[in-house]
Amino acid sequence: MSEFSKYFDEYSFNARVKPALFLVFPIFISLLVLFEPSRTWTGSTVTFLVAFGVIYFAANQMSAKGNALQDKLFKKWGGAPTTIMLRHTDNTIDSVTKSRYMDRLALLISNFDPTTPEYEQANPERADELYRSASNYLREHTRDTTIYPLIFKENVAYGFARNIRAFKSLGIFITVSSLLVSLVVIYPDATTLGSMSPRLVIQEISFPYLGLIAIHLSMLWVWIFLVTENWVKLRGFAYAKRLYSACEKITVI
């Protein structure tokens, strides 16, 4: 893992490379377990070089696909979490804290005016413009990860969730394909398995192969049940909440 991190900045490595690694992991774990030459020194070198190329390409695609998914999700949700959170109709932040944040943002941003529920209802587009302006200002003034490490961590967590969700269909396809190929290689005469008890089937398969099957099944479960839109949404709102909390730490110029 450390070898890959040398070629990417911290955000790219955590939010793009790690999802790419997770995406192609079933292929490479299958090669290592099923294809003995890949475990030799030469084979490991070739495997690493191929893996690096595939992962580098996949990591670059992560950003494009992730942004495309983000546009669709924001449209479905009615806006970005950083916009939704400042709306008076949203209760992610309590009304007292939200009012305090708006007063603070008015001090930081020259053309930002705190809104009221009535103004927001009468001018929803203008209100959203103000909220987007506020979030843009905070992003630009909280880029120093040594001063705002928690914002950076939440941003990375959101980027990871968004990017990996964008490849959910492909991830399921790769995992299922790797599982089927593994089963064919492990037990070519699969027709006889139907007449055997589960205990005998397990006894017929060596421990490394059982472990490989378990990994594929576990990853398939993760792709189906954990890589969800709701997960992305939770991470997005967690980032937005952390971003707005920084407004009280930024010095007024």
TrEMBL record:
<keyword id="KW-0812">Transmembrane</keyword>
<keyword id="KW-1133">Transmembrane helix</keyword>
<protein>
    <submittedName>
        <fullName>Uncharacterized protein</fullName>
    </submittedName>
</protein>
<feature type="transmembrane region" description="Helical">
    <location>
        <begin position="20"/>
        <end position="35"/>
    </location>
</feature>
<feature type="transmembrane region" description="Helical">
    <location>
        <begin position="170"/>
        <end position="187"/>
    </location>
</feature>
<keyword id="KW-0472">Membrane</keyword>
<feature type="transmembrane region" description="Helical">
    <location>
        <begin position="41"/>
        <end position="59"/>
    </location>
</feature>
<feature type="transmembrane region" description="Helical">
    <location>
        <begin position="207"/>
        <end position="227"/>
    </location>
</feature>
